[in-house]
TrEMBL record:
<protein>
    <submittedName>
        <fullName>Broad specificity phosphatase PhoE</fullName>
    </submittedName>
</protein>
<dbReference type="InterPro" id="IPR013078">
    <property type="entry name" value="His_Pase_superF_clade-1"/>
</dbReference>
<dbReference type="InterPro" id="IPR029033">
    <property type="entry name" value="His_PPase_superfam"/>
</dbReference>
<dbReference type="Pfam" id="PF00300">
    <property type="entry name" value="His_Phos_1"/>
</dbReference>
<dbReference type="GO" id="GO:0005737">
    <property type="term" value="C:cytoplasm"/>
</dbReference>
<dbReference type="GO" id="GO:0016791">
    <property type="term" value="F:phosphatase activity"/>
</dbReference>
<dbReference type="InterPro" id="IPR050275">
    <property type="entry name" value="PGM_Phosphatase"/>
</dbReference>
Amino acid sequence: MPLILLVRHAQASFGTDDYDRLSDLGRQQSRWLGEYFKARGLQFRNIYAGSLVRQQDTARELLSTMGHDASGLVTHDGLNEYRGEALYAAYTGGADPVAQQRSDFKGYWRIFRAAMQAWAEGRLPDMPETWDQFGGRMRSALGAAASGLERNDVALVVSSGGAIGRLLGEITGAPSSTAIEFNLQFRNTGFCELVSVGDSLRVASFNNVPHLEFPDRRHAITYA
C-alpha cells in the first residue's frame, strides 16, 4: 500500500518575536530525521510542505541530509498551521501571546487549550477561518500529496502539529477535543505513517521519533 510520512516541523523559535524560524536544535532534529529516513532506504515519489518557513526548512534540511533531490518539493498552503496569534487574541480579547509565554509558560498553554476548544465549537467568530475550513484544506492538501501514488510508493509531507492533529481527528472520527490533544502532544520532527487504502487514509503509527530515542539525544525531544 502507498505510504505517507506526515512530519511535524522541527523546533521553531517559541517565545520569541518570530516563531516561524527553526532553532539550531530544530535544524539538527531535521538532519537526524533525514539520517533515519536514509537508513530506511526511503525514496519519495511525492514531496509536499506548507509555505511556512519552519515547514520549508525542515523539509529541505532532511532532504539534503538524505542526498534526496529537493527540486520536486511542492509547496501547498493547505498544510499551513492555523493562525495561533489570531486564535489567542480572539479568545483573550487581544492579549500578547509572546508576553504570556515568557511570563507564565504553563498558564499560556492552559489558555491556549481553552481557546482551541472554543474555536472548534464555533465560539470565536473573529478567526480567519473556521474549524471546519481548517480541516477541509488539510484534507485537500493530503489528497494532493497522495495523488498518483502506486503500490510501495512513499510520500513525504511536512506540516505542523495543529494541522496534523486536525487531520488525524478526521481520519479516526475523533471529537475535536481529541484532535486538540493530538496537536498539543505532537513532538518536533515526530511523524505519522498513513497508508492509503482506496480513497481513504488509515493511521499506521503516530508521533514517532526513533531518530531522537538515544540516550544522548533525549534532550532533543521537544514540543514547541
